[in-house]
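Page 37, top half.
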Amino acid sequence: MQRRTFCLGALGTSLMFRSVAKAAETYPSRAVRIVVPYAAGGGPDIMVRQFGPRLSVSMGQPIVVENKVGAGGVLAAQYVAQAAADGYTLLLGSNSHLIQKALQPSLMFDPENDFLPVTVIGTSPSVLVVSADSPYRTVQDLIAALRSRPGKMNFASGGVGSAAHLGGATFVTLLGVDAMHVPFKGSVEIPVSLVRGDTDFAFTIAGTAIPQVGSGRLRALAVTSRDPVPELPNVPTLHDILHSDLAIQEFWFGFWLPRKSPAEVVDKLYGATTAALKDASVKRMFEAAGTRVIQNDNPQAAAAFVRSEYRKWAEIIKLTGITAG
């Protein structure tokens, strides 16, 4: 009796492995869903929807974009973490998820242990901007003003824990100066507040800043990328001025799968994404939105990158003393 039970168990296990292998072999055999934690019409959402048709060609199946907005991306992350690990539901994961977890450790998802990163597909720095009418023409001008007027100046953001908040808080903390944080309900209010003179400076995402600078409404003083941004010639990097790696802050996004997804599925999705990113039209589309196309060498490198970024953002939050409440 015991032998029969063992044999049946072994047979069942064998059939299960064959079933998993067969599923991975034929993946994808139906539409693949990308869960986007941003509102429809926002920058990342638009880029994913424009990228979707090219990825669909590589995958050989339709790509469906689903927006699941709320709690700074947390709702989407929790949803995908609990989805079937079959490759048909993936998250547009980003450093925003790492930031939210670092700010709120009690959140019911773990960006390191609940997902398998496939690859990063795009990255965009923030731009330190002031009004075009501002007296500050360089970063050094702004730094001098902050030091001569402690506690009298302010910076704008789209909310607590946003990229603009972290950029501004890191800037003043590294300088050892005091400036007031002015959070708005959304990032779209930042340029308006600068032009009106309600706020003195801000860190806005490149996709928002570049058109505003080009139109003559804002002036760019520095970028938070490691290297200069071609669309903003003669604008230095903040890293070169402050000489701190914590001044390198970029918004990046890519594809994450639920943790138990088969390795074969991860590799196939990586290969399809690689092929899609090679399309010249994708590069032009990303660049038009102030985003640079990038890709990790393989899914293992993507996981290592996420771990490294998680440590960095946790260090930034600890340094600045930012809290969720």
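Page 37, bottom half:
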Amino acid sequence: MEGRAAPGLYLLGWLAAGLGLALFIVAAGTSSGGLAGLGLTLGAAALLSLGLVSAAGAQGAQRRADGVAAYVGPSPFLVFAASLPITVLLVIVIVGGASIAGLDALSPLGALVQVLLTALVYAGLVRLLVVGPVALSWAEMGLRSLPPTRILGDAIWGATFALPVIFVTSIVAALLVGGLGTTPDSPLPPSGNTEGFLINLVSGALIAPIGEEIFYRGFALTAWARTMSPRAAILRSAIFFAFVHILTVSGATFTEGASQALIAFAVRLPIALALGWVFLRRGSLYAAIGLHAAFNGILLVVSQAAAGAG
């Protein structure tokens, strides 16, 4: 504790995170389930959220006190770790509560709510832990106040790279799927009808690109570009982005799950690398959002057309 810039936050971070992790282990081993298991899970998520957010705040305070000039905010890895229990907590409370009222959590609407919550958590943590302590400003993360025509122009410029990236991604996917003999499930549920497709389009081509670009390019890539070369920062952010997207991948067997995770990771690397390049090249997060939205939107339209033809 001695010499810490924010000893209270540091201590709170360790204690709350440790207690939260312990509660998660207890909750996972609780055979009774029901309200007791739910209560333990909620308590664990709340404690872990408090602990990791406090730890991130303490890390940023320490870096400022140490006089680190390049980047004085918390590690993107730590901020992402803090986002996980917060999102779990919100999903359980909001989506779980809505499920009682009749919302199907596995439907396109249920997925939309979860995607929206994730985006809000990303943006909220960046505001609290990065923008608030003046580690980075929104403008430095590419969200400058521009005329609508300039914002649209940046988004369209980024979107023009979508088809070439989809071409490369398709080759990578075809080689891996053919070689490993398995295909990862879509991150969004089957639409089933036009209404479901439109909801998936809002989730995948609007909300997810905005939330993810704020976090992975605006925040993470900008922070890393302050401390390493642009190429290294792009590569690290791309690997980070691709890795995060395989955390929920699973399979009937370990081999199937590992194969699906490998495919899911590899097919996201081309778009992740392109998003990083577009962001730094244009200096605008709107360009990265435009590319991300176009990439996801085109794939969703193609998938819907294929399902209709089948």
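Margin note: Residues 1-135 form one domain.
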